[in-house]
Structure formats: C-alpha cells, structure tokens
Design a protein that fits this description.
Alpha-Beta Plaits; 4 strands; alpha+beta; binds iron/sulfur cluster
Length: 83
C-alpha cells in the first residue's frame, strides 16, 4: 500500500505533555503515520507525533494509548460524499 492509496479521512492531535513516549500508538497504527518526535516534552519524553498525512481516523491509536486524553482523533465527514 502506498501513501497515494490512503485517503486522509482523519487526523490526530497529540497532547505532547500527556504523552509518555511509550510508542504503543506507533505500533498500533495500521497505516504507520505516527512517529516519536526528536524533541523532548516537559517531562523528558519523546512525544508521539503525527506525520501530517495518511490518517484514516480509525481510532486504534486512541484505544492503544494508556494515557487518557493524550490522543484526540478527528474523523472527517465525507465532504464529497456520494449522494
Ligand atoms: S486514527 Fe488510526 S490511522 Fe489515524 S493515527 Fe490513529 S491509528 Fe493511525
Ligand atoms: S501510546 Fe500514548 S503515551 Fe504512548 S507514545 Fe502514543 S500518545 Fe504517547
């Protein structure tokens, strides 16, 4: 599967200071669009970061994350939905 075949049906926001850098969301994401940032958050962890494209809005990362509220998933409405 290439990036071109993955529609951006969603996006995620990571609350950096709530992230412990455990990497579970990276492993869980089926389309591998999460990475650990090179910088450290306020608590000395490398926070997860969304690469900025390719998210399907599936929500798997949200359920994989042990830190409540660290990840927010946004699902895009099908703006160009077929009527
Ligand atoms: S919502 Fe799904 S596709 Fe998007 S970052 Fe999370 S696991 Fe990956
Ligand atoms: S699973 Fe949660 S705590 Fe772990 S790296 Fe991802 S966002 Fe951070």
């Amino acid at each position: 599967m290439t990036d071109e075949t993955v529609a951006d049906r969603g996006s995620v926001e990571i609350a950096e200071d709530l992230c412990k850098g455990c990497g579970l969301c990276l492993l869980a994401c089926p389309v591998r669009v999460l990475v650990l940032a090179e910088h450290l958050n306020s608590y000395g962890y490398h926070p997860a970061r969304y690469v900025g494209r390719g998210c399907t809005g599936c929500g798997v990362c949200y359920y994989a994350c042990p830190e409540p509220a660290a990840i927010t998933v946004y699902r895009r409405e099908a703006a160009a939905a077929r009527a």
